[in-house]
Design goal:
four-stranded antiparallel sheet, Ribosomal Protein S5, domain 2, about 290 residues, binds (3R)-3-hydroxy-3-methyl-5-(phosphonooxy)pentanoic acid, 9 helices, alpha+beta, Alpha-Beta Plaits, six-stranded antiparallel sheet
Length: about 290
């Protein structure tokens, strides 16, 4: 039996555009997913295409127990965390000898398959390696740690990443001359953000722009917009959708002293608020239970 955990993640900048080769910045956050794998005689079968794929790819037979601190289908990277932790636990339990890089690559392959060929390596890189990660056209770079205070607002409206990615692909196909400049702008603001990581007011402003561009791509949701506006009114530096959108979560960047205020603003919009910070650790082995 082997138990491994992986953190959740938020997109600070660049979701959706990153699927088309633009840069993105994402950060691992404290809540984790814990996965225990046991050997078994019968082949694994679950309702999760992510977990099924982990067993298919590795060719072993086992059972899985999951304990998650992350809400699923909410844009906090729970599917990537489950995939990376499951592959790591299988690797450990069956002595497969995969490196952590190999696990990140396999997990990306699985996400891509489940998302019908359209996925970026952002989620799987961040949950594997932890920290703040800059992704640009297939390569990743870890950025210095920052003590960002992030309040996550969960709309409690589940979203389907594959569907949202599909809807942006549709929009891009129908209106390339509108969509491509929006993606270019997201790429440009992500590069600006990369050079201002210590300047919270400027980062907040860029997050607000990123949010508007995501809404223009069609991945907004009224419940998310309400929480974004309420967080800004409560004094956050900036707020935006995180992840695929169409429901799921938003994030607000704020001063430590204002976290409670921003949480209250989110809860008053009937969202569920959760304050979090950076997790510098990625996937890790837990004590067997
Ligand atoms: O909703 P999440 O956490 O799965 O994030 C999806 C992010 C996208 O950029 C929309 C897709 C991707 O693979 O990067």
């Amino acid at each position: 039996m082997a138990t491994w955990s992986a953190p959740g993640k938020v997109f600070l900048f660049g979701e959706h555009a990153v699927v088309y080769g633009k840069p993105a910045i994402a950060m691992a956050i404290k809540p984790r997913v814990f996965v225990t794998v046991r050997r078994s005689k019968n082949p694994h079968s679950s309702r999760s295409p992510y977990i099924d794929s982990c067993f298919e790819e590795t060719g072993v037979k086992g059972s899985v127990y999951i304990h998650s601190q992350l809400p699923s289908s909410s844009g906090l990277g729970s599917s990537a965390a489950v995939t990376v932790a499951t592959l790591s636990a299988i690797n450990d339990e069956f002595d497969l000898g995969y490196s952590v890089e190999k696990i990140a690559d396999m997990a990306f392959g699985i996400e891509k398959k489940v998302q019908k060929g359209k996925a970026s390596p952002t989620d799987t890189s961040v949950v594997t390696f932890g920290g703040i990660v800059f992704i640009t056209d297939g390569s990743r770079r870890r950025l210095p740690p920052e003590q960002f205070n992030i309040v996550v607002g969960n709309s409690l409206i589940p979203h389907n990443t594959a569907k949202m990615v599909e809807s942006v692909a549709d929009f891009k196909k129908r209106y390339p001359t509108i969509c491509e400049p929006l993606m270019d702008s997201i790429g440009a603001l992500t590069i600006c953000a990369l050079h201002q990581m210590g300047d919270l007011p400027k980062l907040g402003r860029l997050m607000n722009v990123n949010h508007s561009l995501l809404e223009s791509l069609g991945v907004g949701h009224p419940a998310i917009t309400r929480m974004v506006l309420a967080s800004r009114a409560a004094g956050a530096f900036g707020a935006k959708i995180t992840g695929a959108g169409g429901g799921g979560c938003m994030i607000a960047l704020c001063a430590k002293t204002l976290k409670g205020h921003v949480e209250g603003a989110i809860e008053s919009c009937e969202g569920r608020a959760m304050s979090t910070t950076l997790d510098t650790q990625g996937v890790r082995k837990e004590k067997d239970v």
